[in-house]
Amino acid sequence: MQPRHGRARLARAMAATAAAALLAGCGPAATEPSPAATATRPPAGPTASGPAPSAASVDPGTLDQPAVHATGLRAPWSIAFVDATTALVSERDSATVVEVSADGSLEPLAQVAGTMAGGEGGLLGLAVHDGYLYACTTTADDNRVLRAPLSGEPGALRLGQPEVVLEGLPRAANHNGGRIAFGPDGMLYVTAGDASRPDAAQDPSSLAGKILRVEPDGAIPADNPFPGSPVYSLGHRNPQGLAWDDAGAMYATEFGQSTWDELNRIEAGANYGWPVVEGAAGDARFVDPLQQWHPSEASPSGMAHADGSLWIANLRGQSLRQVDLDDPSRSTVHWLAEHGRMRDVVLAPDGALWALTSNTDGRGAPAESDDRILVFVP
Q1: Is the distance from CB of 333 to CB of 358 less than 8 angstroms?
Q2: Residues 6+ apart with CB under 8 A from 155
Q3: In 3D, which of 150, 147, 153, 137 has the Cα closest to residue 96?
Q4: Strand, coil or helix: 267
Q5: What does 48-94 look like in DSSP terms, one character per residue?
Q6: Is residue 47 helix, strand or coil?
Q7: If you count Cβ atoms within 10 Å of the first and of the last residue's Cβ in the chain, which end, N or C, has fewer?
Q8: Which of 76, 171, 190, 50 lies closest to 127 in space, CA to CA?
Q9: 3-state SS, residue 348
Q10: What is the pTM of this model?
Q11: Contact indicator for 237, 275 with CB cutoff of 8 Å
């Protein structure tokens, strides 16, 4: 490791171990095609069990405008807190982990070697747990989760030698999943998209189109629903957000194809229907979503739980959506079209929420200060 010299020079590298065998360097960023251009099958329509479902009721937002904490990020994807005042952000296309200090200044901490950025792939989810930084990254061959020891004080953080926690997740230009989070049970949960192979989401032997659950070191928990497998739930198209409420119930957001995006309550071993159904179908084989929205109004990405509500960052919907769990049939849309695309939202240690814009990702219309971290108190 060498000293840092600002954003003009990326001074630290997460060198891959021999077992990781990652490619050196990062591929060029690619402009993401629109969801319609990447569709691989016709959208699922109404089933024989009933008429086509409708969207959830939406209330107008009244949330105060957020404070701008940091600016100048490039295609940021995920936020993870190191301590009460310091966070790390992943930049998808540069494969850079950026340290965000208490005053909002940015410093590169590491560049993840072997990341192959392009389309929706690159450096994706981050998590900090028990002294390790966990990162989900797209390589030339797969999506995988690495972890590296994290040490030092804010402003002088250091990363040790990385190791592979989970590998072999199918990759593609689109539908890579990539969100990682530790649940209240101490297990690591990983979202895996269908990698543009819809039928794989229904195949229990494939890791595509799943939510996965492993021990912090990558071992398979003995109480997983499918013995010997990291698969926790199946039938997902491209799950993007994970959160747990105060009672430990788990929720996930999911990109639909062209009909319905979803908010699901996740149960061990449950099947959420893709590609047989999209949205609520009333089919006993599958779990219907708590809420669903047209993709143009949502494209739900990262999610946090705070103050009895789920807070969801919307990309195409260009808003922050609040779902009060006391009445999960309704939602409130805040800041509609005021800050552009929104990629992630996380709960800070002080109880504030940090939201991450995503206007420099190839699909937005970036302002001069983009991308930004927005901070507000729910």
Answers
A1: no
A2: 99, 101, 107
A3: 137
A4: coil
A5: TTSSPP-PPEEEE--PPPPEEEE---SSEEEEEESSSS-EEEEETTT
A6: coil
A7: N
A8: 190
A9: coil
A10: 0.88
A11: yes
Q: 147-176: per-residue pLDDT in tens?
A: 999 999 999 999 999 999 999 999 999 999
Distances (CA, A) of 8 to 78, 143, 364: 21, 28, 24
Written as six digits, the tokens of 238 are 């491209």
Residue from 98, 116, 95 nearest 107 by CA = 98
In the predicted model, is pLDDT for residue 46 greater than 90? no
Q: Across-strand partners of 60?
A: 333
- What is the DSSP-derived secondary structure letter of residue 37? G
Q: At residue 199, what are phi and psi to the nearest 5 degrees?
A: -65, -25
DSSP string, 147-216: EEEEES-TTS-EE---EEEEEEE---SS-----EEE-TTS-EEEEE--TT-GGGGG-TT--TTEEEEE-T
Phi, psi at 122, each rounded to 5°: 145, -150
Q: Which two tokens stand for residue 110?
A: 């590491």
Q: Give me the residues paired with residue 164 across strands.
A: 146
Would residue 178 be called left, alpha or beta, if left means φ above 0 and alpha means ψ between -120 and 50 degrees? left
Q: What percent of the chain is predicted at pLDDT more than 70?
A: 86
Tell me if 114 sits within 8 A of 23, measured CB to CB: yes
Helix, strand or coil for residue 302? Answer: strand
Q: How far is CA 268 from CA 99, 151, 298, 351, in A?
A: 35, 34, 26, 29
Mean pLDDT calculated for residue range 132-149: 98
| Token pair belonging to 378 | 């729910």
